[in-house]
Design a protein that fits this description.
The protein is mainly alpha-helical and 337 residues long. 51% of the residues lie in helices and 5% in strands. Helix 12 crosses helix 13 and helix 13 runs antiparallel to helix 15. The longest helix has 28 residues. It starts with a helix and ends with a helix. Bound molecules: zinc ion (ZN).
Length: 337
Amino acid sequence: MTTEQREKRQIGDNRNFSVNKEVKSLSLSLSPLICSSTTRREKNRREEYIYIGNRNFWTLIPYYSGSWIWRKLCKLRSVARPFVVCEIGSGMTASFWQDNWTGLGPLIDLTGPTGPQVIGLPLKAVGNMRECVDDDVFLWKTDHHPPSCLFSSLKTWLALNPLDNPVAWHKSVWFKDRIPKHAFICWVVAWNRLHTRDRLTSWGLSVSPFCVLCNACHESRDHLFFECVFSQEVWMFFTSRANLTPPSSFMASLLWIKTVSRDSNLSLILKLIFQADIYLLWKERNSQIHSSTTRPPASIIRDIYVMLRARLDPLSRIQLAAAPGSSLLSTWFRFFG
Ligand SMILES: [Zn+2]
C-alpha cells in the first residue's frame, strides 16, 4: 500500500474543520498563486526536488530492501523537519501541504489528513507563482533569527539540546590556562563518573571494595581524593604552604577552590594544583592496580612540582611581556619554592 493510499484510508478519521476552514480561506486568498494542475515539464521538474519516485520524501515509508543508512536517515526526518523552511519563489518545487512555507509548519499537520479533501487541493498541489522566475529556496531555521541557507551544527545542537543552567562549580574546572587532561578528569570526578570501587560493586562486579591507596577504607570518590590519608598528605602539603584550610569533601573543595584567594596568581596556581592532584591520584591508583608498583605521597608531590613549573613558566613569560609585575612563577616560589 502506498503512502497516498494510506492517507486516503485515514480520511474521515480525524476531521478538524476549524483548522480546515482557516487553511481553506488561506488557500482562497492565494488561489491566483496556487496551481494544482502543472504541465508535464513543470511536474517533472517538481518531482526532481521533493519526490523520490512517486513518493514525497517527508511521508514515504522506506522499503526494507533499502540501505541501512537510508532507513536511518528516514528515521531522522521528524527531527530535521521543523528546521526546514521554504521560501517561495516560482512555487514549482514547494509542496503546498508538506513544506513549511507559512512559518506554521506543514499545513497537512494543521489540518490533518482530511485537509486536501475538505479544501479541494490535492496532496501534490504546489504553490505556483507564475510571474516569479526564481526557484523556491529551502532554508534552515534553528532559532528566532531569520532562516539561513547556511547549516550550523552548533546552532542545531543547541536547538536540540538547550543549555541547562551552569553548575555552580564549572569555573573551578573550565578556567583559562587549565591543563586540558587534568580539567577533563576533574570534570568526570565532579559528576562522579570515574569507576571507583563503590560504583563497581554497586553494578554487581566482584571486586574488593577497599581503597587501593590505603587499603583501610572503602573506596569512593570522596574517600579516594580527600578522605584517604594518602590523598590528604598531598593536598595538605600545598594548602598549608598557602596558609589555607580547605574543606574535607570533594564537592565542598571544588566550590571552595573557585574563590580560594583574592590574589589571582595564587588562585590560578591552587586550581592547577587541585586538578593535578586529582589527575595524579587517579593515575597512581590505576598504576597500583595494573602494575603493582607503589609510590609514596612525596613522589606525587614531586610530580605536581614538575607539572606546575612546566605550566607556569610560559604563562609567566606571556604575563611579564604584557604587564611587568608579580608573575605566576614569582608567586609560586613565594609560597611553594
Ligand atoms: Zn584510602
